[in-house]
What we know:
Elements: H1 5-16, H2 21-31, H3 35-48, H4 51-60, H5 65-81, H6 84-96, E1 99-100, H7 101-108, H8 112-124, E2 128-131, E3 134-137, H9 140-150, H10 161-165
Antiparallel strand pairs: 1-3, 2-3
Helix pairs in contact: 1-2, 1-3, 2-3, 3-4, 4-5, 5-9, 6-9, 7-8
Amino acid sequence: KNLDKKESALLIEKTVGKTEKKIINEIHELSKGHPLVLKSIASRYKETKNVRKAFLTELLCKEGLIYSYCKNSLSFYLNLARGQSLLKNILKIIAEKELRLSEIALELYRSAPITKAMLERLISVDLIAKKDSRFYFDDKILQLWVKLTSNGYDFDFIPEDKDLEEIQI
């Protein structure tokens, strides 16, 4: 269950101490109220004093808690769904934008029936969802992680500010 703003504020202040409302709102917004993500950002914020940098460091640094959560979640879901390489390609496409079945099939250079079967596997393990004929990630943090790491944004070290400036979130 994701936390509302009031619950987020309590967890953030428990982690960081008394904090400005602006900082609480920024952490809540980036974390989408996800408790693990929220606590991870708040803990890193104590060190960086910059919410965006704290979030991106935890999300994209291989030592980061959010990075580990996303990597392990994706691995778990893909193991349940079977057919990893094609499924990963589908996820990379959907991470960029919500698309219809025919649009995804075109991007993959696969037939609609094969693509549909793969999408149904991803839906069956709750990794993606479908609304109004469009497919999307339920977990927006995982979506962002897939999108950014698929585009080469992952770090073996704590990234420099200049490395984070160009990243769109």
